[in-house]
Amino acid sequence: MYTAVKIAVRGRVQGVGFRPFVFQLADKYKLNGTVQNNMDGVKIHLEGNLELVQAFLSDLKNKAPRLSKIHEILIEETVRQNVTEFTIVPSERSGTSMLVIPIDSAVCDDCLNEMNDPSNFRYQYPFINCTQCGPRYTIIEELPYDRPYTSMKSFPMCDDCRREYEDPTNRRHHAQPIACPKCGPKVQLLDKNGIETDSENLIKTTIELLKDGRILAIKGIGGYHLCCDARNEQAVAELRKRKNRPLRPLAVMAASISSVEVLAEVKEEERKLLKSPESPIVIVKKHEQYSLAESVAPEMSTIGVMLPYTPLHHQLFTDTDLSCLVMTSANPSGMPILYKDEEAFHYLAGIADFYLIHNREILHPVDDSVVQINDGMLDFLRRSRGYVPDPFLISQDVTGIVAFGGQQKTTFTIGRNEQIFVGPHIGDLENIETIGHYKQELEHLLKWIDIPKNTAVIDAHPGYYVQKLVKEYTFAEIIEVQHHHAHMAACIEEHRIPGKAFGIILDGTGYGLDGNIWGFEIFYGDAGEFERLAHLHYTPLPGGEKCIREPWRNAAAMLISLHDDEGLALSKAIFADKVSEIELLKIMIEKNVNTVYAGTCGRLFDAVSAMCGITQVSSYDGEAAIRLAELADDRCIFEPYSYESIDKEILTINFSTMLKEIASDVLAGKDVHLVSRRFHETVVQAIVCAMVELNNKNPDAEKKVVLSGGSIHNRYVRKRLAVELRERSFDVFVPEQVPCNDGGLSYGQLAVAAAKRSANQCALEYQQKS
Predict the structure, then answer these.
(1) Residue 702: inside a domain
(2) Domain range for residue 9?
(3) pTM of this prediction?
(4) Do the domain assignments include residue 167?
């Protein structure tokens, strides 16, 4: 039986070799017709024997290219056109966009084999790619994804590349970034004065410079990295000095998995992430034989490592004496990622000795993604290159909702139909450059995704820049969402949790509905609404933000406010060089001068870290809590300190006795590893105790719990809370696909707005029926 069908394929189906795949399937089953990219995805017209068409459809679904992700296949019978062959036709650029923008992917093994083959005309070519790898999102100017609408438009294909591009049986059939040494982008090696290095082999010269201890700025897929030999202590220390980055761990790139295994204990899940097409930075535990320079990740038991993900990266490791490189973002602290050549030379003057650059323009910069395996599950610290802007699916129409995120680690999120697009990691909205970067990327995605501007969603904090930013856009309505409700809603939406749930939100900062700073909360509710059932006892932050930058101030303020004169004496004993400042803090607290009140997990961790002498002044965000957490070990459970749950209208968790006991241990010279482990267990037990009490008071409540907020990155807290709660018959959910920190905030904000929209629609329908 002869039939004709038209097929619409939606999802990640452009820029992944989908049309050549369809062409080859049609050839395999002797079918005629056409395949075309359009603003809706991929459109196929197919004619032939019914059984062969059905076999085609089965392979279409089950054998799609590795980078593709099919969300929907729509099939309907159509009129026969009596075509006599199968062809790829030019893209259609009209209509409403339903496209999924293709993501950047690590170079594939086939391309690497060709790059290392002396007989191949792309031998040692650092921009080799095919339909299964290479740049995508970072080079796109317009949609649909075709070469004339990318930064490759300035590189006309040579005859050899054109032949492969037009050959339906070739791996590079319609590979938009296709290039070779004759027609494609080229590298240059420049010194710090911008003078080009005269060398027959630039890569070999670069390797020699790195081996000689030089610091290089290297232009990659999504922006510039600063790079040096990770085994050279002098080079790494100099990089830190020049970049003014004294302690924050530096990411490294290792030549191979075997090189990583020399440095770290690599679990199977971590191995898969390292070798995946997304190729993120993976946080792994240092091995006993770890031999990198001490300055790479000082006083840390973990290290962030990635494998080479571009052909250029792989070429840097052709010398076996160079097995591991520092590969850290080149942007100055607080600034967005550097990706333009002129900006790199301006901002990296005095930092980089040489610049390894190329002439393929980066249109959309992206940072490296950062992940860890936490209690056996994926935990995103930063979701960017390799993952963005791949959409999440949602069970309702979210068209026209745009969530602006928060102030720190910010992202934005856009809703279209039943898709949620989370934008790239932007950073902290603290300067004009980062704000400009935010607006540029938001406006590009809004243009590509093409939605009406119905609802803007922002954080409820009146001082966050998004409160001003949203006014630059015309939305029908603006919704404010409480910070920690957004964290809770993100996890609820990710796991599609029906009904209500408890939310344990442990975070650093979030504007509370009572005007105080929240960040140690137990909620009950859903994405649409919540009730606050418990929180941490408030303590003062005299000087506000200064207490965050200098945790010793926070620690002293806690002790003074909780223990009066005894707390004052303990503060002076622990911070003996700060006696005069402590007296001033006491006055500020008593007179309520420039003092806000907070009950947050982040500030609690900061205080204990400072009391233990680990971090009294932070050199980067979260340093005090991160370094304190490094001392905890969940393989042995220690006795908790004292704590108290005060049953008021809202259950209040009070750690005043614990802080006094910790102060006594510190003054007695107790091992800070022991103090950290006991402290961590105290936090866990206090929360579990509160959950049991709340469950007893609310016996009809659902026994489902979501854990979120930035402090849920803490391995000990995350694992021990899950274990203890599950032992008490709670179902526990944690974020796995979006960060639990503020990088996932916009996703949660959109989930809140979608839930409110759905509730309003239901209410309207009910009124109409009544």
Answers:
(1) yes
(2) 2-88
(3) 0.94
(4) yes
